[in-house]
Amino acid sequence: MALDVAVQMDHVSSISIKGDSTFAICLEAQRRGHSLFHYTPERLSLRDGKVTVRGEVMELREEEGNHFTLGPLEKRDLGDSDVVLLRQDPPFDMAYITSTHILERVQPKTLVVNDPAEVRNAPEKIFVTDFPDLMPETLITKDPLEVAEFRREFGEIVMKPLYGNGGAGVFHITREDRNITSFMETFGLLFREPFIVQRYLKDVRQGDKRIILVDGEVAGAINRVPAETDARSNMHVGGVATATELTEREREICARIGPALRERNLLFVGIDVIGGLLTEINVTSPTGIREVARFGGNDIAAMIWDAIESRL
């Protein structure tokens, strides 16, 4: 059955198709005969209980630099779509949160993936604290005395914004680093929210593993190795993807969190694991699909659509 699929995303002109998971998911939808309707989050409107959006019919091609065609701008009732893909990138700010409130209004008639209420209630760096025994030691605070005490306890730490993404604003601070007070002052000026502090994991030099789960089950994984001059493994900032296999410990982590993902209707999730410790559960706009396929892994886009279609 052909489906009417609306895609809430960053503008398609801004993506790099080589590594973009949204592009892979949409291309698979197109292969299956589903129609694609493209819009960006600021085009959402809510009036008298009805959600409308201005967007364009979208066609995709596997051609870098010539990867899309958009039809004329038109207004649609989002409740008439069969599926909405919630795929814009963070920051997970009030604009993002507001869009999840609006998208809730089209449920259950329309299937939203991932479930907007659960996305809102499961920020990546907070949801993970539901599993403290799987994590490195972690502190969420704005209290400089707490941060100082945490560093005294563990020596090397990592500080990062609570709602950041893509490795932005991530700092590795050693026991001798004299900049910690400046870092906290800067974070305090930039962010109203608390920030997150974790024990530094030396195993990150061997890689930060991204494991993708579809409907709570392992679908594939890649290892992201940081550049020699950087503490961050994110591919946005120079991390290099390599092929990998899951360890017994990593399979144990996936088995533990899988039921919670299914319970929350979080169909497509990417978790980050360093040295056998879970650091994030990414539910907003997970990436890694194309890299898994590049190394001969599963066709995760097809697995996602199999799971979506089974719900309709």
Task: Please provide a written account of the structure.
With 312 residues, the protein is of the alpha+beta class. The strands form 3 sheets. Strands 1, 2, 3, 4, 5, 6, 7 and 8 form an 8-stranded mixed sheet that branches. A 5-stranded antiparallel sheet has the order 15-14-13-16-17. It is globular and about 60 Å long. The model has no long low-confidence stretch (mean pLDDT 92).
Helix fraction? 25-40%
Outline the biggest β-sheet. Answer: 8 strands, mixed
Low-pLDDT runs of 5+ residues are none
Tell me the distance between the termini.
10 Å
Mean pLDDT: 92
Rg calc = 20 Å
Quaternary state of this entry equals single chain
Strand and helix layout:
Layout: E1 4-8, H1 21-31, E2 35-39, E3 44-47, E4 50-60, E5 68-70, E6 74-77, E7 83-86, H2 94-103, E8 111-113, H3 116-121, H4 124-127, E9 138-141, H5 144-154, E10 157-161, E11 171-173, H6 180-190, E12 195-199, E13 208-214, E14 217-225, E15 240-242, H7 248-263, E16 268-274, E17 277-282, H8 289-294, H9 300-310
Parallel strand pairs: 1-2, 1-7, 7-8
Antiparallel strand pairs: 2-4, 3-4, 4-5, 4-6, 9-12, 10-11, 10-12, 13-14, 13-16, 14-15, 16-17
